[in-house]
Write a structure and sequence with these properties.
It contains four helices and no strands. It is mainly alpha-helical. The N and C termini lie far apart (100 Å). Bound molecules: zinc ion. The site of zinc ion has 8 residues, from loops.
Length: 137
């Protein structure tokens, strides 16, 4: 619920109108501010639904820049921050368990696999040649 920004009024506004119903102060700046904020939150929610999460996070951050207490934007950004923190922790623990996993020499099987394939093709070629030679006699 908004209150009238006029220091001599400060009454709670029953609705978002361009003129205060008590002191007749011009509230058009306040109305435009609230409209823009709600539009920005709506755009961020739409980006989230479309799966454009990076753009959505930026949109929510823009909302928080204007209104740091905005509950939906704070919730969404804190969820993303928590997910990034969990990912960082998981990546760090994976590096501690197996330091060679991220950047190290390939395993024995992956190193010998191409050579094994070449040997298999060569063996098949010899076998096919032998069969062809036997059948032509
Ligand atoms: Zn007023």
């Amino acid at each position: 619920m908004l209150t009238c920004p006029n220091p001599s009024c400060r009454k709670r506004l029953p609705a978002l109108t361009r003129v205060c119903s008590y002191c007749q102060a011009d509230l058009s700046l306040l109305v435009d501010y609230v409209d823009n904020l709600q539009g920005a939150v709506g755009r961020a929610e739409e980006l989230t639904r479309e799966g454009k999460l990076a753009e959505a996070v930026w949109a929510y951050l823009e909302v928080l820049e204007v209104d740091p207490a905005n509950a939906p934007a704070r919730k969404q950004v804190s969820q993303v921050a928590a997910a990034v923190r969990n990912f960082d922790r998981a990546a760090a623990s994976r590096r501690l368990i197996d330091p060679s996993r991220d950047s190290g020499p390939p395993g024995l099987l992956t190193a010998w696999l191409p050579l094994l394939g070449v040997l298999l093709v060569a063996a098949l070629a010899f076998w096919a040649g032998y069969q062809w030679g036997c059948s032509s006699n």
